[in-house]
Amino acid sequence: MRVLVVGGGGREHALAWSLAHSAAVDRIFAAPGNAGTAEIATPVPLKAGDIPGIAEFAERESIDLVVVGPEVPLVAGIADELESRGVPVFGPSRQAARIEGSKAWARRLCRDHGIPGPAAGEFTAVAPALEHLEGMRPPYVVKADGLAAGKGVVIAETRDEAERAVRDCLERRIFGDSGATVVLEEFLGGAEVSAFGLTDGRTVLPLSLAQDFKRLGDGDRGPNTGGMGAFSPLPFVDEATERAVTGILESAVGAMAEEGVHYRGLLYAGLMLTEEGPKVLEFNCRFGDPETQVVLPRLESNLGEVLLACVEGNLASYRLSWTPRACVGVVLASGGYPGAYAQGKPIEGLAESASVPGVHVFHSGSARRDGRVVTAGGRVLTVSALGDDLRAARRAAYESVSRIRFEGMTFRRDVAARAAGEA
């Protein structure tokens, strides 16, 4: 099977790496890929958003399966274009990708079909939004409806901060059309977890749960980021809760089917484990990053086969096999991230880092220039380590991190520490 992985981040490197270990896969292409994927896949100089270019390449190269990593091309309809040309694609249609592309649509889906989530309201004008705020208790959750590169969610501690966030969306239009509708949600407390489910539109096959670390600094301080680390499995989640999480994924796929929306691909649910049970914070229409980098190293099943089964509608006959070992992933970021940061900084120690037993170094924002690997993004690498338990995985991950160097490198030192009993 010839596979094309669309995207250039750590998630896509992890997908390509896992597919490279699949007996069903003969050759992998990556569009555009990065310095890490270039070691296992043929680079294709096409941006992930170049839908016509990717579709033409897939036809020309007789690609048997396209695996789409990022949300933007999915929301823009890349799966529809590929299907119209007869190219098998793992990823939901434009209509189904609304579950991430429109937070208001996702909230309505939950409300109409009894899927547990926070109380929420959707608004297109400032006055009713501010009136709704008066009936809420702090902290206030304010979300731009559409895709906003991870910057469209504000958790406001005060009423004034919440109003400013509302006006940023609806009046100042800092998110453009993505903020034309604003979603105001009840704040939920508890432990946040990431749930993945593979689906062919009927069967949902859950993957191992993970937890990520969104704040830049130790102790969950500093600004929100795309994710500074993750780990899997979750020792604090019991079987009853896992069943409830799977039920939420199944309910979401079923709800969309009832509304005539066939969802095929990976459904991600960001969940809060509240005293009343798991509740949906958000849905995504693709694998998460950096959670993918700690989930896939634990997967023992053939990823290529199971992704193709999703596309062909044969998922009911599959079961996934997992290693009991734990995986901890630590993200290494450029200085200044998630704000402005420099690029082109040489990265040293990659070979030494990867030599630590059980370690896989996944590239996110990297490039090869003049024979050297350099930084090319905010989140540069994810160092993922397998261990017999979370403590062992943490030790391996941070030993590996200590061998990598680039100017301005920053990372969290407490990834999985609490779950491992080390905080």
Q: What's the oligomerization state? A: single chain
Name the strands of the widest sheet in spatial order: 3-2-1-4-5
**Which CATH architecture of the largest domain?**
2-Layer Sandwich
Structural class: alpha+beta
Q: Rounded to an integer, what's the Rg over CA atoms?
A: 21 Å
Q: List how many beta strands DSSP finds.
A: 22
Overall body shape: globular
Name the beta content range. 25-35%
In CATH, what is the class of the largest domain?
Answer: Alpha Beta
Give the number of domains: 4
Roughly how much helix do the residues carry, as a percent range? 25-40%
Largest sheet, in brief, is: 5 strands, parallel
Within the CATH hierarchy, at the fold level, what is the topology of the largest domain? Answer: D-amino Acid Aminotransferase, Chain A, domain 1
Low-confidence stretches: none
Attribute tags:
423 residues, 13 helices, Dna Ligase, domain 1, Rossmann fold, globular, 4 domains
In words, what does this structure look like?
This protein has 423 residues and is of the alpha+beta class. It folds into 4 domains: 2-93, 3-Layer(aba) Sandwich (Rossmann fold); 120-185, ATP-grasp fold, A domain (Dna Ligase, domain 1); 191-317, ATP-grasp fold, B domain (D-amino Acid Aminotransferase, Chain A, domain 1); 326-401, Phosphoribosylglycinamide synthetase, C-terminal domain (Glycinamide Ribonucleotide Synthetase, Chain A, domain 4). Helices cover 29% and strands 26% of the residues. The chain has 13 helices and 22 strands. The strands form 6 sheets. The protein has a 5-stranded parallel beta sheet with strand order 3-2-1-4-5, sandwiched between helices. It has a 5-stranded antiparallel beta sheet with strand order 12-15-18-22-19. Strands 6-9-7-8 form a 4-stranded antiparallel beta sheet, with helices on both faces. A hairpin with a 3-residue loop joins β13 (215-217) and β14. α7 runs antiparallel to α8. The protein starts with a strand and ends in a 22-residue tail after the last helix. The model has no long low-confidence stretch (mean pLDDT 96).
